[in-house]
Amino acid sequence: MKQSTSSWLLAVVLLSIVLPAAAWSNHALGTWQALSVVPEIQNAPSVAVESLGTFVSAEGRGLEQLLRQEEQWARTHVAFYPPRPDALAFHPGSSPAQQRQRFLGALRINPDAKLSLFLQTKPGAELNGQSALPWTEVTTLRRETSARRNIFLRLREGDRVALSDVVASASDEPDYGLDIGLWEDSGTLYGKRYGFGKLPFGNPALEFSSQAPFHMGFFHESAIVYKAAGFLQRTYPEYRIHLYRSLASYALRTGHPYWGWRFAGWALHYVQDLTQPYHATVLPGVSVPRMLWINTLDLLKFHAPKVRIIRLVSNRHLALENYQNCRMRAAYERHDMNDALLRAVRDTAADGNYPPYADDAARQVISSQAHAAADAADRTLERRLPAKFVSDPAYVVGETEVGLDLFVLVKTLPPTAQDDMTNLVAGLMRHFGEHSRSLVRSLLVAARS
Ligand SMILES: [Zn+2]
Asked: How far is the CA of 442 from the centre of ligand 1 (A)?
């Protein structure tokens, strides 16, 4: 088969991929644990809540300069970066509301994002008379959102809050609609202005699918995959991480700790997403020759193998996430901080083995590690979970059975299956914790300078 023909064939299969766009269902559950072993965070004084409008109005000139530098950095360092149209550059405006809108435009995030003043509460915690905030006031998503299971607290400007709660709550926020509808073909007015081009992969008609290219990083595929399907290189977590980390550092240096740590949480989200093997590899467990073969069959009008493989990869992705989320949530609810997954996130034994956080960490360290673990993770899920969830294309995890709890189900399996699932997810959670602390420590240095 000639190279060009095989490339074209592969592009056909990959273009039709619609992958789940959330990596870990509730990032806060992991972030609280990861930071519980960082004394500088735990012992830090509480911070005063500030609205985004107040922050942006106070720092207009500085933000103008910072965002200009950020754009330059992204154009120079982010591969396949779609430059931000100059018309979106941030300039301090007149009214606070106007400045807020300009700021969101310069970040190229959903202008309808709620960005309310809120905290997430730990599952099983008491509200103690504090006022709850409906989930509809933190997310723009309605259907595909895990936020509806969380309890949120309403904050007001001037309230004093613990730093770890700010970071943990914010680490789940990028899944609340911030990256929805940003593409030219998303059917939104702002998508037409933002200059990101068309959705690289997935289905533009599915709302949640539009955030995937910001929350995934396909940096380690084989050369033939990129040759065939260049659009897979258009994933931008590095852009988001750098932007939010720079904003965090700026806010910390200029005396706005609440926004400093909230932006830090946003940056963490994308780092944490890249620890999910299905966010760092396009089709774990599927070799390139197999992709080509399936595609050939597809072109010969045997569509079933392609539909099957995409469904199975998607189901394993969702099964991994369901197990991790249900298990960690249950541990919080019964106040069992000794659960193996929570312990793994807090495990600092290997923290010192990594170099200090650097701009290329997302690509060279974090996603590379998750990519290396992807095939083995896929195999464990396939072998250890009941066939229905991982090998039956007629079954859709999260849809066929509402309220599926794979943690409860795995407890009924033989001990080897339970152990393998624990080891698999604990290994991933260990990396989640290590990379979260690495980024946060880099900001503690910025906060002191
Ligand atoms: Zn995400």
From this structure: 21
Instruction: Assess whether pLDDT exceeds 70 at residue 381.
Output: yes
Q: Rounded to the nearest whole angstrom, what is the distance from the C-alpha of residue 363 to the centroid of ligand 1? A: 16
Question: What is the spatial distance between Cα 184 and Cα 314, in angstroms, rounded to a whole number?
Answer: 25
pLDDT digits (tens, 9 = 90+) for 129-168: 888 999 999 999 876 567 778 899 999 999 999 999 999 9
- For the chain, the structural domain boundaries read 3-45+164-448
Residue with tokens 């901080």: 337
pLDDT in tens, 301-345: 888 888 888 889 889 999 999 999 999 999 999 999 999 999 999
Residue 115 — left, alpha, or beta (φ > 0 → left; ψ -120 to 50 → alpha)?
Answer: left
- The residues with which 273 forms a beta bridge, in sequence order, are none
CA separation (Å) from 251 to 271, 341, 423? Answer: 20, 33, 39
Q: How far is the CA of 168 from the centre of ligand 1 (A)?
A: 14
Cα 190 to ligand 1 centroid, rounded to whole Å: 21
Q: How far is the CA of 376 from the centre of ligand 1 (A)?
A: 22
Compute the distance from residue 228 Cα to the ligand 1 centre, in Å.
26
Decide: 194 and 157 in contact? Cβ < 8 Å.
no
Closest CA to 157 of 57, 232, 34, 303: 57
Give residue 94 CA to ligand 1 midpoint distance, Å: 34
DSSP assignment of 419-442, as one string?
HHHHHHHHHHHHHHHHHHHHHHHH
Sequence-distant (≥ 6) Cβ neighbours of residue 389 within 8 angstroms: 315, 319, 395, 397, 406
pLDDT at position 244 over 90:
yes
Tell me, in angstroms, the distance from the centre of ligand 1 to residue 415's CA.
Answer: 32
> To which residue do tokens 């990519």 refer?
371
Termini Cα distance of the chain: 59
Tell how far the Cα of 40 is from the centroid of ligand 1, in angstroms: 26
Distance CA 303, CA 312 (A): 14
CA–centroid distance, 22 to ligand 1, in Å, is 5
pTM: 0.94
| Ligand 1 center to 124 CA (angstroms) | 24
Neighbours of ion ligand 1 (CB under 5 A): 175, 215, 273
User: How many Å lie between the centroid of ligand 1 and the Cα of residue 215?
Assistant: 5
